[in-house]
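Notes from the 1:1 (GR / supervisor)

We went over the backlog. Supervisor wanted to see one worked example end to end before approving the batch request, so GR pasted a single chain during the call. The sequence is below; no edits were made to it. Supervisor asked that the structure be written out right there so they could see what the output format looks like.
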Amino acid sequence: MNVGISGLKAPGGSWKDTLRMAKLAEELGYSCITMGEAWGEDAFTSLAQVAAVTERIRIGTSIVPVYARTPSNVAMTALNMDLMSEGRFFLGLGASGRLVIEDFHGERFRKPLSRMREYISVIRKAAAGERLNHEGEFFKLQRFRIRFQPYRSHLPIYIASLTPASLRLTGEVADGWLPIFLAPSRMEPLVSDIEAGAKSAGRSLDDISFCPQVSIYVTDDIEEGRNRERPHIAFYIGGMGVFYHQYMHRIGFGEEADRVRGAYLGRERELAASLVTDEMVDATTIIGTPEQCREQMRAFFDAGVDEIRLVLNETDVESYIGVLRAVAPVNA
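Structure output shown during the call:
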């Protein structure tokens, strides 16, 4: 089982603690370490240091927004990361959301899928050593070529997608899919969209790795774990635009999501969290003893997932390390 770690940062921990945990994750057999960015630390600087203290574990972004940098800038950075890590880097991209893009980055949030398609096209040209001649809706580039030899000509690119159109785009152009709140027993409509996109581009599902980001709570108290996850799900349904709310409808939690979103938008955050049902949590989250957690991981792989990126929700460094050890691949 390919089990990675998403985030790798414990509350209250120092950066030295993070690097110590990165080395431990490699020793324990985890397949990758990913880091995303919103309005805190950037992903690339963090991952560069992680790459410097590790030798085998893969590293990647989960995610960087396609509005925060030009595609040429991301191409330089990502290809340099891949060179420095000797082929261990992969690039996870996403659109983020209107609030982050417009209020934090000051960019207009317009046609995210069209922008994503152009973005990836430019990065592919850069990785292949081609001139960045591109005449698109968003980017008009000419003449320049990356001035170093990329480590490999095809850098793996993953897309964080949930809407039907973005899932089809993932099938068309991406090497991997980075979903959140994936429910293994309710994947069929999502996979169908990816497969449709893949077929339209002469590809198949075998060309795309499914790599969900999954929250995990290692505990003997299942209800305590559920209660810790409920606010997280409620925040995404109510506070992160419409996409996660619509996604919950697609996987059969429509009525529940409507109630959660209504309470959240009414500024009743605690009520919104309480309205996230046990079934919603259990379908998308790994909770239980180490043995129970491994059994739940197997359900993801049995459903067709290629790699799980675990999100550890511990409150301090030692607890974080304890969970890293408890569900480590070397112990499976």
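Supervisor's comment: The chain has two domains: 2-219+289-331, 227-284.
Batch request approved.
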